[in-house]
Write a structure and sequence with these properties.
The protein has 391 residues and is α/β, with parallel strands linked by helices. It has two domains: 240 residues, 3-Layer(aba) Sandwich (Aspartate Aminotransferase, domain 2); 146 residues, Aspartate Aminotransferase, domain 1, CATH 3.90.1150. Helices cover 40% and strands 14% of the residues. The strands form two sheets. Strands 1-7-6-5-4-2-3 form a seven-stranded mixed sheet, sandwiched between helices. It has a five-stranded mixed sheet with strand order 8-9-12-11-10.
Amino acid sequence: MKFETKAIRLGHTPDPKSRAVIPPIHQGTTFQFTAVGENTGYEYSRTSNPTRVLLEECLAGLEGGEFGIAFGSGMAATDAVLAMLKPGDEVVSARNLYGGTLRLFESIYTPRNVKFVYIDGGGPEAWRAAVTKRTKMLWLETPTNPQLQVFDIAAIAEVAHQAGVPLLVDNTFASPYIQRPLALGADIVLHSTSKYINGHNDVIGGAVITSDPQVEEAVRFFQNTAGAVPGPWDCYLTLRGIKTLALRMRQHNANALAVARFLEGHEMVDHVYYPGLEGHPQHELAKRQMDGSGGMVTFHLAGGLEQVNAFVGALSVFHFAESLGGAESLVCHPASMSHAVLSDEERAHAGIRENMIRLSVGLEHVDDLIADLEQALHAARQSRQAVRAGG
């Protein structure tokens, strides 16, 4: 079954009673037992809910995994995986990560005596050198947030398996349409389903997908025990969004590539990060590992914070807002938004400067997107000229 068919059919089995093509939303919190100790597989919606089960089956199928476990947010899903660790354990991780993930690492788990060892870049040899007897997991995003660095999943998975530990890949930026880490050797896939999977900026959610029964057991135990579950309406909306995932991602790919090429040649842009550009350092790896380069584009605006303010203030099609992956195009200032939780030193080390701008390129007509960026860059140019004239 092809991806487009899976996205529409998995988790969408007609209701057995009414034969409705769209399954009903099971809002109920409790389910009747058939006898003492016997039920239909459902007893309480925190533990399991029919609508959530359909979403979990769909997510597992799209990623090529055996098990899908849905959560109320991407951070809840992240916490569920980290909860498998014990004091004294180590995680080897890419340094370039979403700021909220780093905050969870350093503010919650480091005080619990879980150590995080960060890799700045390089090939699998850097990961191999960082592994010790205490290492229990390898962790990465690819492409990364916000620099869009691409890691070789298959090579790093080999390092993990030689060490006898799992590799987790946060696949949020790519989506399962573009990249399927389990097929490349990863053991755990993580998603903020709020982003491309839902695709409409109207649901907060997360998911863990794996084919490892021990991981599934531990993560599902956390899901039930901590209760960080999505409600049935959120599950329904996410399933509804998934139906158009393939169509949306193809348009995100096309629009983002056109935007990246436009920015690459503009005098007010110092540097563009986008795996689809031939100048990207991991361009060839991205071509091998991904079916498209995604909808995220990051760039450095020529100038400083004053020019950033002029740029975002002039936008009319792009929204200056958090998050990503929806139909609407969004602009994020990582230093003050997605990575504001980091210290100035940490942001500097990660290369997140005050003039960095991250675009979530949406589904509007690309001509309108480029025209909006052009006039906003013109406003930034005027701001820079005014500063120089006054200097």
